[in-house]
Predict the 3D structure of the following.
Amino acid sequence: MRTVTALVAGLVAVVVAIVTVPMFWVSTHVVDEDGYVTFSSSLATDDDLQAAVAAYLADDFVQRGLVPAPLQDTAAGVLTSVAQAAANQPGFVAAWDETQRSLHRSAFGDGSGPLTVRLQPLGRFVADRAGERLPVSLDVSTDLEAPVGTAADRSRLQQLERAQTYSLLGLMIVLAGAALCLVVARRRTLAVAGLGAGALVVAGVLRVATEIVAPQAVDRAEGLSPFAQQVQRLLVERAADSLSAWLEQIALVGAVALVVGLLGRIVVGFRRSGAAS
């Protein structure tokens, strides 16, 4: 009976962990505002994103009559080069972080329309440094917002707010299941090895799931503006990389537990053989 209880507890811990790990990542990197801003901060230095922002600003300047249409490509090129040159400046990253904070608040606020990001802080930073290289004065609109997702995207994100509660509940179940497995197991060394194997299963299953889900999330951005596609693509790629780093740590811990458990079982077997002889 103890063996069956230990086996069931271990299986419950593994199954719940498969759901809890990504949910806990979402809770700390997406739902939490400061966590999201920190996570997305690295996007500011991406060349393709900088070009997409510059192209969007140049189009806005043309639409508002600040830049003649024939100069749109020139303005976009200048804005891109300025953005890339200023990417390592603290003000640029701070401006990007402010845009991402506005995106987070837009996503998890009470709104129901398309998902938008406020580009005014980043646009002003770049435009101020590009103005002297263009024959026109650039004034960034105070209400400059760029769509980065649909209303359906907003709805899906808002549903993730429950991840914080569910991830904590799942974590408690995983810990309780693993502890019960170790306590009631007749051979604790095998229980440790089994839990280690379970951790490897969790890491493997989630790794495969990430490789399947990530491309689907990127494809969902088709039909949006180039800027929106670039933002969503980079966020998905960074999310997959960040979660993969978690999975590598889980796999490492699982491998160590598996080896320690098996070695422990071998040592116990030798001792019993020696005592018997």
The chain has a mean pLDDT of 80. The two ends are 30 Å apart (CA to CA).
